Amino acid sequence: MKGTQHRLECPKCGKAFFAWRPDELKGAAVKCYFCGNQFEDAAAKRPAPAAPPPPAAPAAGEGKAN
């Protein structure tokens, strides 16, 4: 499973720590290493980025060499 390390801050105790977060499970709970509080990271609460628009197709007659 792919994932990355993220710097998180516990909303209960305020301490910062690093935790590995899986890319596929954005809404998975995080457990603070210091106080044991479980919470969702800020990235899980953000909406997913919109997909980029598809590239424009060339107009008829353009792009052809004669």
Short description:
This protein is mainly β.
Structural commentary:
6% of the residues lie in helices and 27% in strands. It has 66 residues and is mostly beta strands. It has a domain at 3-45: Roll (SH3 type barrels). The strands form two sheets. Strands 1-2 form a two-stranded antiparallel sheet. A two-stranded antiparallel sheet has the order 3-4. A hairpin with a 6-residue loop joins strand 1 and strand 2. It is rod-shaped and about 65 Å long.
Please tell me the overall pLDDT.
79
Q: Would you count the extended β strands for me? A: 4
Strands side by side in the biggest sheet: 1-2
Q: What is the CATH domain class of the domain at 3-45?
A: Mainly Beta
Looking at the overall shape, the CATH architecture of the domain at 3-45 is: Roll
**Biggest sheet statistics:** 2 strands, antiparallel
- The coarse silhouette is rod-shaped
Percent range for β-strand residues: 25-35%
By helix and strand content, what is the structural category?
mainly beta
- List unreliable stretches of 5+ residues: none
Helicity range? under 10%
Could you give the distance between the termini? Answer: 51 Å
Order of helices and strands: EEEEH
Q: The CATH topology of the domain at 3-45, please?
A: SH3 type barrels
Q: State Rg.
A: 21 Å
**How many individual helices?**
1
